[in-house]
Amino acid sequence: MSNTVHETHILEQETNEMSGSRGEANFVWRCKNCKRESSATIKAAPAAYEQGEPPKPQKVFEFDCRGLEFTEFKAEGEWLADGIDSGTKFTGIELIDGEWFDYDEKAGEEVSIKELVWEIRRA
């Protein structure tokens, strides 16, 4: 049986200026044809996924989208995890394939994140 981990994503909250005096957003997109500008802003820092039995869906990110709608999430970049019982810190986790395996020296067990599913819903 593998030890389970909490996971958190390192999210850089870079902001981009919007045209005119409309402020800033984390993602700004402008249509080349109609010149319409759309944006998405991260509403709050990402929430850590809390492991539970059985696993339950949990909100990790929330965006304020203006003029656009996200259709897919890809877990690119580096993620972090903490061993539940050992407190071991795992860094540099890549979840693009939907799973991750490592060994927790403190717990003396394999740790994993697997069967990962992302869902995008309107709030």
From TrEMBL:
One MF term in GO for this entry? Answer: zinc ion binding
Q: Name one Pfam family in it.
A: CXXC_Zn-b_euk
* InterPro entries assigned: CXXC_Zn-binding_euk
Keywords on this record? Answer: Metal-binding, Zinc
The record's similarity note reads: Belongs to the UPF0587 family.
Protein name per UniProt: DUF866 domain-containing protein
